[in-house]
Sequence to fold (342 residues):
Amino acid sequence: MRRPRPAPPAAPLPDGLHEGLIVTSHGRHYIVESAGGQRHLCHPRGKKSQAVVGDQVQWQAPRPGQGDEGSIEHIAPRRNLFYRQDEMRTKAFAANIDQILILIAAEPVFSERQLAKALIAAEAAGIPALIGLNKQDLGPAYASAWQRLAAYRQILPAGDDAHTPAPLYPVLRLQLDAAHGGDDFPQLQALLQGRATLVLGPSGVGKSTLINRLIPDAQAQTAEISRALNSGRHTTTTTTWYWLECARGSAVLDSPGFQEFGLHHIDRQALTRWMPDIARHATGCRFHNCTHIHEPHCVVRAAVLPEEPTEAAPNAAEAPGIAPSRYALYKHIFEELPQGRA
Ligand SMILES: Nc1nc2c(ncn2[C@@H]2O[C@H](COP(=O)(O)OP(=O)(O)OP(=O)(O)O)[C@@H](O)[C@H]2O)c(=O)[nH]1
Ligand SMILES: [Zn+2]
Fold:
């Protein structure tokens, strides 16, 4: 599948305006890339800086004598926006992306809660997600991390829109600092083709190792960007868009780390919709607004499996139950979300 490139404008652009793609930003400074690959430093017109990496924009070159920064005049409608939100603020990662790779590793031990939250945000934004489990060489730690992901690897029966049973999320075994890249590295490379992939993950999992492996001149590009943005060296301030090849059909986006993936934009009443393994059971509850926490005859609670660790059934013909860890996460996140949103 090739990612559709933005169609050239049907009508000529108004005088002095150019099409471009936001490839990174720092505060109110943006780097806009034109179709030919040239990069331009721009700032948003007006007070607000609403553009995010991945936005298609129209920008204007500086007029003579008005410095060397262009201005962003218009942001094209987005097909999606991936962001996190807490009580205080909203942090956008990127717009118009095709998929999200959540990279975790055998070490440091990952937080299943942060993983689940990022996956919920991806579902709510309508963006497919995959999980990469790196550091396959770390035997026992890897085995235990792999086991902790059993609920994510479980095969779900075909749903309304899918024709074949599929894992809840693809989980790829990676060893990014080895020449071979890990058992599923070829699969990862195939999945990156023709798509724009946002890479998300906590510190120390191998994000830079992945980016440098895929884009050999990434470090040089980063240095050049820092210079242009006048930001400190080695500071990843926002997401950065890297093309995988000259043809510019595939891209990976390196994103800044985070402590807590805030889900304040998610309606708690709709939470099950964004957890597909739970959503499958939720339709059978007696009350249409069942919270699946205390109601009698709750089909979701009845479907929760016993606590003993269960390996994902490779060919579950019938509906598998809900992993207790996933139900515990559901309850925890439900309680955390603000109440009374429309
Ligand atoms: N054992 C092992 N170590 C790896 C592997 N891949 C990367 N590492 C190491 O893990 C450490 C962290 O890798 P980075 O690529 O810097 O991780 P990062 O996610 O970019 O981390 P930050 O820079 O802190 O955001 C480095 O010491 C890497 O050499 C792997 O497959 N196995
Ligand atoms: Zn219920």
